[in-house]
Design a protein that fits this description.
The structure is a homodimer.
Chain A (H helix, E strand, L loop, with lengths): L2 H8 L3 H9 L7 E2 L5 E2 L2 H15 L4 H12 L5 H34 L10 H7 L5
Antiparallel strand pairs in A: 1-2
Helix pairs in contact in A: 1-3, 3-4
Chain A binds a DNA duplex through α2.
Amino acid sequence: MNISDAAERAGLPTKTIRYYEEIGLVAPARRRDNGYRDYADRDVHMLRFLSRARGLGFSVAECRALVALYGDTDRKSSDVKEIALKRVSDIDAKIAALQAMRATLVDLSENCHGDDRPDCPIIDDLANELGG
Amino acid sequence: MNISDAAERAGLPTKTIRYYEEIGLVAPARRRDNGYRDYADRDVHMLRFLSRARGLGFSVAECRALVALYGDTDRKSSDVKEIALKRVSDIDAKIAALQAMRATLVDLSENCHGDDRPDCPIIDDLANELGG
DNA sequence: CCTTGACCTTCCAGTTGCTGGAGGGTCTAT
DNA sequence: ATAGACCCTCCAGCAACTGGAAGGTCAAGG
């Protein structure tokens, strides 16, 4: 099948598929006589795998490791689990950072009357003018 | 003062300060006869403002708007508040996405024995092999 | 047969927000 | 005079795509 059909089934843009091929995340697609890429179901399967992994926030580097483990019938499930748990702790750190930002912003916003006057604790805080 | 002193006081790398100047986020620094940038306290103040805003996750584009509002003594605090609240809702969306990812990953990890065997529900889920 | 439009190809540039390094000038202290 | 710590500019690269230009291919309709 053509790349656009594969893209639709995998849930990825064609650009991204070509990009994954270019960076070696997936094997180069077979080509037809006219030079068009030709995808089989198992190729789409792999692309879906990547789409899902990227959707869960795994980096391309992590995806490489996952692809290798996916193709390794002798893999240890602990290796996969390790990558997943690392990802969970990365996510936890990101959530914590975002929650801290959010708390600060909400706090500042609650103290800002938000009217036509220029007086604004948000600006003041950013400028650190509270203490001088 | 030299850029490295300004950098230290502002909490930004020198590279970043030059970059902010290059993209017009801050006005070009005054230069000394030898070509070195020369920073005054108010310049450092502005750089700290930016450092803090970036630290709260405001994009450079948002920082531009904040800088403009900062310098506008006729600003409406509602304009500032609007940017801050927009940022809060962006953060909320990001947190929600991360929490969904996290839940999926934790769920998958809990079902993975994480031992020397290849059998792994994490890989299976990514490959979408559960339903066929 | 010709044309139209939707495909496909490659390659290059841009995105965001820096960061690193090369290659060079300057300043300060010894 | 020289070492080392500054400073300068410019170019390249990071993640992970995305957009567009320039051109080849294919299927349908007149």
